Amino acid sequence: MKTFKITLFTISALFIASCGGNGNNNQSLAEGASGNMDEYVNGDVNAIQQALPQIMVIPADQTLKNFGALKETTIEGKKFIVRDYKKYLLADDRFPRLASFIQDAFNKQNYPLADFEQTLKQLDTQAATDMADGLKQDAKTQLLQTAQPDIILEMNYYKSSSLTSHDYKNKNVSYTLTALDAYTNKSIATVTTSNIKGESTTEIIQNNLSEKLPGLMSDIQKYFSDILTRGREVTVRIVVDEESNVSLQDQSIEGDTYSDWVMDFIKAKTVKGACKMQRNTNNELYFVNVRIPLLQEDGTQYGVYDFTRELQKYLRKNLGLQSTNNSQGLGEVVLTVKGI
Q1: Residues 184, 233 contacting (CB under 8 angstroms)
Q2: Would the pTM count as exceeding 0.85?
Q3: CA dihedral 311, 317, 319, 323 (to 10 degrees)
Q4: Tell me, what's the pLDDT at 36?
Q5: Side-chain-side CA neighbours of residue 329 (13 Å)
Q6: How many alpha carbons lie under 13 Å from residue 138 in its C-beta half-sphere?
Q7: Measured distance CA(188)–CA(144) in Å, rounded
Q8: How far is CA 2 from each of CA 42, 43, 72, 126, rounded to the nearest angstrom?
Q9: What is the torsional sign of CA 181, 186, 191, 196?
Q10: pLDDT of the residue at 129
């Protein structure tokens, strides 16, 4: 098999062209999977197809609250949000139709999808209550860890009926659809419309979305093209276990501290060494704005899990440090150093 090599700049340019730059939106990026299967399996990796962001449509917190499926609780003086997605789906029969409509539009443009309802069922099947040893996670964190979407589309809507007796069937509907980076929770783009009139809430929103979704897709494509070029933004935190006698300021045989080794690894594995160190103590190293590549040289995806696994191997092989992976969010790396 020929080696597939392409620069991130070229991938980015091709991505833009294939995702709408030439106006041919109906051309499938996965058409190589049809026809000659041997040729598809043994052929070069399609880096553009690998890089398409996976989309997931979920209800926004305000919508959950409107249907009595969100509440705040206090544990040891700290406030936490509790999301009850199952209760929400039982109370709102419109969301599945709206989500299906949005997913269908993205599916026609060949975006990979993660389905909200199916992921909830998967969580039930796996009895996933804790996704990390000793760490409790809320419903949203579990959902994202299981589905691992690139982009979240949060839907919030509300309606009010007309107060006039002759027009009681007419409704005023307002909605907001926000695209968020699932790894950083940063807002990418928003579609919002207020006081649209009609008889069916679902049809009102769907008709309006038909006009707005192409623009939202364009904004998502531009954002993800930037990630292809500059890397995916994550945070990296290295902490020392309380029972360990290791200090991150201890020196290795070569004379560099353990912290120095970690910093060298991060600079070598990020796009153009992009990272910003916020804390460097005996017991903790913390980096933000760490940009890891989205693709490997052969065009296959490279993610946070790959980065974390490589860092653990690096610490074990070069420094003899044993560590455990305690990451929770999609866009974070948390390693706990247990000792030598």
Answers
A1: yes
A2: no
A3: 50
A4: 53
A5: 12
A6: 13
A7: 17
A8: 9, 8, 55, 40
A9: positive
A10: 41
Burial status of residue 265 (CB atoms within 10 A of its CB: 0-12, 13-18, 19 or more)? middle
Residue from 190, 187, 181 nearest 291 by CA = 181
Tokens of 249: 């300021």
| pLDDT < 70 positions in the chain | 1-51, 125-137, 161-169
**150 burial via Cβ count (<10 Å: 0-12, 13-18, 19+):** buried
Q: Which residue type does 24 have? A: N
Please name the amino acid found at residue 97: R
* DSSP H or E stretch at residue 160: strand 151-161
**Which residue type is seen at 225?**
S
**Is residue 133 a contact partner of residue 76, using CB atoms and an 8 Å limit?**
no
Q: What is the pLDDT of residues 27-53, one digit of tens each?
A: 333 444 444 545 534 554 444 444 579
Residues in the chain: 340
Q: List helix spans (H) across 92-200.
A: 94-107, 116-126, 139-147
Six-digit token pair at 149? 């979407």
